[in-house]
Structure formats: structure tokens, C-alpha cells
Recover the amino acids of this structure.
């Protein structure tokens, strides 16, 4: 397992002010915590390689595939959730990951050279 620190942005709107005021006094906090929980759930089901190539697709699924009424209960609509950056939580892990990526890249380059000869 690789622990990552993710950075992202939400784009959302208030659709029903009455519902929002009735249900919560911390809409932003509720949305962030729910999305974080959903994101962790979805990311835990993929490999690191899948995450690195599909992180924005996964981010879309955080709200598009959410079958709960979480957002509508709070009177909000999520337009998008975008991952703006990610990094390894530990620098030692980042170094190892960088070496793995470099070796994989080198291996792919060697295979392409062999195929072209």
C-alpha cells in the first residue's frame, strides 16, 4: 500500500437553500468529508498504476456513482470533483516509487527498441 496525499477542488451549487439550512450548518464540511470517504473507498479498490492513469475518472465516480441522497438532502448539487495534485505521504516511499517508475520506463523503452530492430 502507498499512502498518498491528494489535493482537489469541488465545484458545487446550492439548489435548495431551505433543505441546506434545515439539514446542516456545515455544508462545506459535510461535502468534503463525504467526498473524502467516497474517494478513499473507490481508490482502495484500484492499483497504484490504475489510480495514476485514471484519477480524474475515479474523482468523477465519487459523486456520479453515489447512489445515496446525501447531496440532495443538503440541497446541493456537485458539478465536478477534480484531483489537482497528489504525492506520496512519505519521502522514502516517493523515492522508491520514482525508482520503480524509472525502471518500468527503461524496460518499456528497451522492449520498443527490440521490436523496432
Amino acid at each position: 500500500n502507498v499512502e498518498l496525499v491528494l489535493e482537489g477542488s469541488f465545484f458545487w451549487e446550492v439548489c435548495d437553500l431551505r433543505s441546506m439550512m434545515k439539514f446542516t450548518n456545515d455544508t462545506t464540511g459535510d461535502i468534503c468529508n463525504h467526498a473524502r470517504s467516497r474517494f478513499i473507498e473507490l481508490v482502495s479498490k484500484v492499483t497504484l498504476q490504475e489510480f495514476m492513469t485514471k484519477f480524474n475518472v475515479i474523482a468523477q465516480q465519487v459523486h456520479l456513482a453515489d447512489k445515496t441522497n446525501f447531496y440532495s438532502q443538503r440541497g446541493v448539487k456537485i458539478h465536478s470533483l477534480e484531483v489537482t495534485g497528489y504525492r506520496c505521504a512519505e519521502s522514502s516511499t516517493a523515492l522508491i516509487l520514482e525508482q520503480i517508475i524509472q525502471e518500468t520506463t527503461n524496460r518499456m523503452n528497451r522492449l520498443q527498441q527490440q521490436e523496432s530492430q
